[in-house]
Amino acid sequence: HGHTWPPGLARWRSADMPLKVIQWATGGVGRAAIEAIVAHPDLELVGCWVSSEAKDGKDVGEILGTEPLGIVATSDTESLLAMDADCVLYSPIMADRSLVCRMLASGKNVVTPLGWFFPGSRDVSDLEQACREGESTLHGTGIHPGGITERFPLMVSALSASITHVRAEEFSDIRTYGAPAVISDIMLFGKTPEEAAASPMVDFLGDGFGQSMEMIVAELGFAVDPEPLSLHEVAVATRPIESPIGTIEPGHVAAQRFTWQRTVAGEPVVTVRVNWFMGEQGFDTGWSFGPEGERFEVEVSGDPSSTVVFHGWHPESVAAGLVRNPGIVATANHCVSAVPYVCEAGAGIKTYLDLPLVAGRAAPHLGVAQPPP
């Protein structure tokens, strides 16, 4: 399992036995995941869970706005749990841990962007037990956390010796995020600095990013101090700023920076940072994307040091981002690409440190011809 199977093994079954996948939820990630499943030569969509009555009973293609796919969406959890499937791609807004346990115990592998990137010292005995019962695998992945904050830094770190610091950082225009309730009520944009200081995001995001930092710490071997550090900074509008939650008035929060760090004797050795701005102008000085624009950065300081900048995961415009956000699509693709490898892995929670290299697949018109089913 894991490290021992030969390269390309995931392709042996694609010709006559595609892996059967259930997509759980059809938000931004879910819709993009369905597109990627349909395009993947080794995978077949066999079921789809939806939360709303409006989508229940509709062909999944209709939900996507494409031609019919022949799969009817359902909100009937029990029928999907009873279905014969190899994997569930689980992407609702919030994870229901007991439901994930039931999926695993029913013999279905689970790939999700909602956590479990690196359990570390957390109690995951219930999930591990469910994996044993169902001889199934749980894998957490995505982009941030789930890529930028651990997979890519680990990969780049192999090119350096004597590593002193690892940094993973996001710079994003949050106007392209099509979830006004989240922006206003959870992220607390448009509120006063005093209100924003109570943001649940430090803890909410800190769990995922905390796992990312622990994965780096564990693999690189830093002797870290017991407690992570966190810092939340805000900048207020200096003039009215138009946003998805309406006009943000002067004096109200228009940009936020969250930083999490692990230290050795007080010196930072791992830094994860998120910079979220409502556009590029109209806040306090010293807050901007800079000439590089929106991006993700991975930096490993050592001998030698490396900096990698990821462009292309941000939409070209606010309007384009509200239709289809490349960062959301990349998150979904990272999940879908992992499915064949997760299905081949041994039972249990498997992280990037346990799985072989996960790769995408050629576009259908450029791929190896598949025999008719």
How is the secondary structure organized here?
Layout: E1 19-24, H1 28-39, E2 43-49, H2 60-64, H3 77-82, E3 87-90, H4 97-105, E4 109-112, H5 125-134, E5 137-140, H6 151-157, E6 161-173, H7 180-186, H8 193-196, H9 201-220, E7 229-236, E8 241-243, E9 246-248, E10 253-264, E11 267-277, E12 295-303, E13 306-310, H10 318-323, H11 326-344, E14 348-349
Parallel strand pairs: 1-2, 1-3, 3-4, 4-5, 5-14, 6-11
Antiparallel strand pairs: 6-12, 7-10, 8-9, 10-11, 12-13
Helix pairs in contact: 1-11, 4-5
User: Roughly how many Å apart are the termini?
Assistant: 28 Å
State the order of secondary-structure elements, H for helix, E for strand: EHEHHEHEHEHEHHHEEEEEEEHHE
Helix content: 25-40%
Query: How much β-strand is present in the residues?
Result: 15-25%
DSSP helical segment count = 11
Q: What report would you give on this structure?
A:
With 373 residues, the protein is of the alpha/beta class. Helices cover 28% and strands 24% of the residues. It has eleven helices and 14 strands. The protein has a six-stranded parallel β-sheet with strand order 2-1-3-4-5-14, with helices on both faces. It has a six-stranded mixed β-sheet with strand order 7-10-11-6-12-13. Strands 8-9 form a two-stranded antiparallel sheet. Helix 1 (28-39) crosses helix 11 (326-344). The longest helix is centred in the middle third of the chain and has 20 residues, at 201-220.
